[in-house]
């Protein structure tokens, strides 16, 4: 059975974007980007809410040649994966290998996990919160940046409590820290 992994790049105080919806402070340097590429390489399908999908669809049309080697590699990895976007408003995808679902259905995600040959990644705080609440997320992969933004969109939902088992950690030269946890059920 495939795992459902929640990936997020956050501030030290746990936000994926600040009060002004800015997340430029989360842009990975070359070392972190290379590491992220290795983390997501085995992912076969990304699950996104509309806003995260609209952010990530940048990789569909980016001029690869104008990007760093790490970004070029990520572009190829992202384009090769399937994407499922959960949205009540989006009608047509702006990327290949993408389908739109009008509602997040935990039973459908369980079935997808059982039938998938590659792991699934979920991106976006709201859709990840729904998956966490439904008991669907198997692992959290968080990259904590050395910045406190003081508020904004939290990476993890309020009122959700679950035990975690630390599986891996890594420190980067720029001060970011990677933490990989398995959720205890």
Overview of this protein structure:
By secondary structure, the chain is of the alpha/beta class. The strands form 2 sheets. Strands 5-4-3-6-1-7-10-9 form an 8-stranded mixed sheet, sandwiched between helices. The protein contains 6 helices and 10 strands. About 30% of the residues lie in helices and about 30% in strands. The chain has one domain (about 5-185): Dihydrofolate Reductase, subunit A (3-Layer(aba) Sandwich). Helix 1 packs parallel to helix 4 (about 70-80). The model has no long low-confidence stretch (mean pLDDT about 95). The chain has helices at about 30-40, 50-55, 60, 70-80, 105-115, 125-135; strands at about 5-10, 15, 45-50, 80-85, 100, 120-125, 140-145, 155, 165-170, 175-185.
List its salient traits.
Dihydrofolate Reductase, subunit A, 10 strands, 185 residues, globular, alpha/beta, two-stranded antiparallel ribbon, eight-stranded mixed β-sheet, single chain
């Amino acid at each position: 059975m495939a795992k459902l992994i929640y990936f997020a790049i956050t501030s030290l105080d746990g936000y994926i974007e600040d009060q002004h919806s800015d997340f430029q402070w989360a842009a990975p340097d070359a070392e972190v980007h290379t590491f992220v590429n290795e983390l997501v390489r085995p992912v076969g399908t990304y699950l996104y809410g509309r806003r995260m999908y609209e952010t990530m669809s940048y990789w569909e049309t980016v001029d690869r040649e104008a990007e760093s080697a790490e970004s070029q590699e990520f572009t190829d990895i992202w384009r090769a994966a399937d994407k499922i976007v959960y949205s009540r408003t989006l009608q047509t995808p702006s990327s290949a290998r993408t389908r739109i679902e009008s509602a997040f259905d935990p039973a459908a995600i369980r079935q997808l996990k059982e039938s998938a040959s590659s792991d699934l990644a979920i991106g976006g705080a709201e859709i990840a919160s729904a998956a966490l609440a439904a008991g669907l997320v198997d692992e959290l992969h968080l990259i904590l940046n050395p910045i406190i933004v003081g508020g904004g969109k939290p990476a993890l939902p309020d009122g959700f409590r679950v035990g975690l088992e630390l599986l891996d950690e890594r420190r980067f030269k720029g001060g970011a820290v990677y933490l990989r946890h398995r959720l205890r059920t």
